[in-house]
Amino acid sequence: MSIIEAIIIGFIQGATEFLPISSSGHLVLLPELFKMTNPDLTLIGLVHAGTLLAVLIYFRRDLWNIVTAVLRDLSQRQPMASSDARLGWFIVVGSIPVALIGLPLEGFFEDIFGSPRAAAGFLLVTAVLLVLGERMLSGKKDIPHMTWTDAIVIGLFQVMALFPGVSRSGSTIVGGLSRGLDRPTAARYSFLLGIPAILGAGLQAILKIFSATSNEFSTGVYIAAFIAAGITGYACIHWLLTWVKNHTLYGFAAYVALFSVVFLLISFLGS
To answer: Which residues pair with 181 in a beta bridge?
Structure first.
């Protein structure tokens, strides 16, 4: 793999992890479409680490406030006293469904990842979700007014992202919209909720590195992919949070639907 290909892989992961267009779908489809070198386990682990670093840096103040509030309220035996502490527990509760379902069925989902056509088909699911989310938008709630039910429902929406082609950020944003959150609030909570999921995916990939017999690419390739993923991820978080204040999700829905249809046409006509 060349440095240019590594930067492209990092860019794909950094952009599509946070934009509601599915990182898993793009990492499966784009290398297949453009005959790129498939990334090895080390590279996959590093680009996930790059996006994790991006979200941790971007939300560093939020995360500090959440952690300190949780510890303070626990020490005072009032674990839900502050809105920041409640947000922390909502993130924990919202992460439970994907862990309970994803870990036991890991092999099943890995098999689906081996099918580019399945990933392309699930991109259409993402498009439908984004359209439905916009139709359900009421925009009446912000994070301090969230409930336990909201956290659980949004967490269940995140489970759909276990399928390649279903966007994690897209599904959780739509879950938030279905519960009455406004678009910016749904996006912000989606990113915070994604931290445990991205951390889990990154650690899982990095642990698999140690079972590999050797690293396939040069150190420069790995560094380039990591940096590209981190910088792109940070920029896309900021861009999307700004975008959703005054724009709908329909453009993303149109993009993933078009990408899916074009890939499937090329795939079936070329076979």
So the answer is: 141
The whole domain housing 163 covers: 3-270
Q: What pTM did the predictor assign?
A: 0.86
Encoded amino acid at 219, one letter:
T
**CB 175 within 8 Å of CB 153:** yes
Residues 6+ apart with CB under 8 A from 127: 253, 254, 256, 257, 260
Number of structural domains (the chain) is 1
pLDDT, tens only, 213-247: 556 667 788 889 899 999 999 999 999 999 988 88
Distance between CA atoms of 172 and 157, rounded to whole angstroms?
6
Tokens of 158: 């995140």
pLDDT digits (tens, 9 = 90+) for 130-157: 999 888 877 778 888 888 999 999 999 9
